[in-house]
Amino acid sequence: MKTSLLTGVAFTALASATALAADLPRKAPPPAPVICPTCDWNGFYVGVNVGGSIGQNRTSNSASIFPAGAPFAGVFPGVFNPISSVNDTRSPSGVIGGGQIGWNLNVNRWLFGVEADFSGTNQRDTLTSSNFVASTIAAASANLSYSDEQRLNWLGTVRGRLGWTYDCFLTYVTGGVAFGEVESNLGVSLVNTGPGLSFGSGSGAASFKTTKTGWTIGSGVETSLAWMGWSPNWSMKLEYLYVDLGSVTNSVTAPVVGATGGAPNSVTLANSHDIRDHIIRFGLNYRFGAPAHASYASGPYAADMPVKARPTPVCVNCNWNGFYIGANLGTSIGQNRTSDSASLFPAGVPFGAVFPGVVNPVAATTDTRTPKGVLGGGQIGWNLQTNRWVVGLEADLSGTNQRDTLTSSSFVSSTIAAASANLSYSDEQRLNWLATVRARLGWTHDCFLWYVTGGVAFGEVESNLGVSFVNTAPAPGLFGSGSGAASFKTTKTGWTVGGGVETSLTWFGLSRNWSAKTEYLYVDLGSVTNSVTAAITGGGAAAPTSVTVASSHDIRDHIIRAGINYRFAP
Question: I need a surface site. Which of 92, 236, 305, 349 has the fewest CB within 10 A?
Answer without folding.
Answer: 349
